[in-house]
Amino acid sequence: MATMKAIQISQIGAPSMLVLSKHIPKPTLPLAAGHILVKNSFAGVNFIDTYHRSGLYKVPLPYTPGRQVIASIEATGLVEAVGENVTTFKVGDSVAHLSPSCYAEYSTVSAGYAVHLPSEISLEAGASLLLQGLTAMALSRIAHKVQPGEFALVYAAAGGTGQMLVQICKNIGAIVIGITSSAEKAQLAKTAGADHVITYSTEDIHARVMEITNGQGVHVVFDGVGKSSFDTSLACVRKLGSMLSFGNASGKVDPIDIMKLGPKQVRLMRPSLFQLVSTEEEFQSLAKELIDLVKNKKVSTHIHKIYDLVDCPLAHTDLESGSTTGKLILRI
């Protein structure tokens, strides 16, 4: 039986639970109809991976990160085989995909959740853009349709999703306020296009937002931080504005009193990429638009660091520390 290397989790917990195995069964041929086999070159590291590992999101054990309903992880690589009824890909194609088991040497991928990478986008860059880029597009195009001239508040604006949100909102014509933890990260947010940057370690977020918006607040808050930022985010939203709490970087948000939404008639949403983009057709439409934005240099990616697969625990540790900027990826 042919085997491959992959990261597995036998029990939930700390990053040390991520263990490299070289004896995982390789996906077998023939493939199911409509699927492709990809030899992965790089895999993206995302906060959802840490939620699975820590037990915040429940998964069956033993578990290879990504072995979850519809594509919780991303990777790039070369097509090694195609199943019946696949007409959009051929052996040797360079692709990015969302699919099960991407912390692995090989992935079996539904062709509808893969997209061609043009020659202008390397496999490294491709691994840094798909999940976070699609998240940013779904948040700003579907969850709240950002309009030109609107004020958009983006938490963790120097992170992977944050930089994508800043760029995409600026492309629409919004006035973007980024939030970061340091002067170094503030510069990255400005480079991404943020009109204003608030450094929360030295500035009062709510006071600065009210100053920038002439006391009105923002039209939309994109908050991927979660527990520690929720109340401040809600305070920064203007009347009839949108509060999008899409992440748990600081922990799960506590239950809230719905009456808090009443005074300003705030729209509160807990958006999920895989609910906003739940069909292959929706994925293909948004993914191709994202690829075109990157290809035409309207959106760029920023890779913080590339780790060897065996160093996956370190990548999780670094991501959870809050010290990183941009995207972390694994070399398979």
Summarize the structure in words.
Residues 13-330 form the Enoyl reductase (ER) domain. It is a single chain. It is built from 10 helices and 15 strands. It folds into 2 domains: 3-128 and 301-331, Medium-chain alcohol dehydrogenases, catalytic domain (Quinone Oxidoreductase, Chain A, domain 1, Alpha-Beta Complex), CATH 3.90.180.10; 133-271, Rossmann fold, CATH 3.40.50.720. The protein is globular. By secondary structure, it is α/β, with parallel strands linked by helices. Helix 3 (130-143) packs across helix 4 (160-172) and helix 6 packs parallel to helix 7 (230-236).
Spell the H/E element sequence. EEEHEEEEHHEHEHEHEHEEHHEHE
Instruction: Provide the CATH topology of the largest domain.
Output: Quinone Oxidoreductase, Chain A, domain 1
Using the 3D structure, state the CATH architecture of the largest domain. Answer: Alpha-Beta Complex
Low-confidence stretches: 66-72
Summarize the amount of helix as a percent range: 25-40%
| Terminal residue distance | 21 Å
- CATH H-tier superfamily of the largest domain: Medium-chain alcohol dehydrogenases, catalytic domain
Molecular shape: globular
Beta-strand level of the residues, as a percent range?
A: 25-35%
Number of domains: 2
Q: What's the count of strands?
A: 15
The main sheet comes to: 7 strands, mixed
Kindly state the mean pLDDT as a whole number?
A: 93
- Count of alpha/pi helices: 10
Q: What class do helices, strands and sheet pairing give?
A: alpha/beta
Tell me, what is the CATH class of the largest domain? Alpha Beta
